[in-house]
Design goal:
single chain; mainly beta
């Protein structure tokens, strides 16, 4: 069963990459790779695609109230492994709006990013964490630095939390520190 789930997630990831390749470049322009670490002995990898300056589904005046952030939309595939037992693995697909505020100007700006999205996990337990259901919310916040003014590549360091908002108990959730490399394409 786990092998079938891994194949399904592989096909889904291929679909995301294919979708990203055919979306017009004016709307879809950033790929990212990330590594994550959890104090619960989880190590992870993430690959994703970000559509920058995506549609704002709320009125502009609401965004003006919170500093007029740029709105991005992001899809990704995650995998986390228990570092004490490499056979204990969980995979997820995520979709999230990401709000981005400029903290500094210049050719190498510092940015603040935050988002709340949804994720679908292929299992409900990893390590000693009981998640109860496959549907989870993905909350995140990160500080991002655009280190290359020409390519606009960035590095970000942040915190992500996965939880299902007590839709079902127990709701142990996952807490991860995430280092991400973003590359415009």
């Amino acid at each position: 069963m786990k092998k079938i789930q891994n194949i399904a997630f592989g096909l889904l990831f291929f679909g995301i990459v294919l979708m990203a390749a055919i979306v017009p470049k004016a709307q879809a322009d950033e790929a990212h790779l990330a590594v994550s670490y959890s104090t619960e002995h989880l190590n992870g990898l993430r690959a994703g695609y970000r559509w920058t300056d995506g549609p704002k589904i709320l009125p502009q005046r609401w965004f003006d109230l919170i500093g007029s952030p740029r709105v991005h939309w992001e899809a990704a595939v995650n995998t986390w492994v228990n570092s004490r037992n490499s056979h204990d693995r969980i995979n997820a697909i995520t979709f999230s709006p990401v709000l981005q505020w400029s903290l500094t100007g210049g050719s190498q700006p510092l940015l603040l990013e935050a988002g709340i999205g949804v994720s679908l996990l292929d299992d409900q337990q990893i390590s000693d964490r009981e998640l109860s259901i496959s549907f989870q919310f993905e909350d995140r916040i990160a500080l991002s630095w655009q280190y290359d003014p020409i390519s606009q590549a960035r590095l970000s360091f942040g915190y992500s939390h996965y939880s299902q908002a007590d839709l079902k108990r127990p709701n142990d959730g996952l807490d991860l520190w995430v280092l991400t490399w973003h590359v415009p394409i």
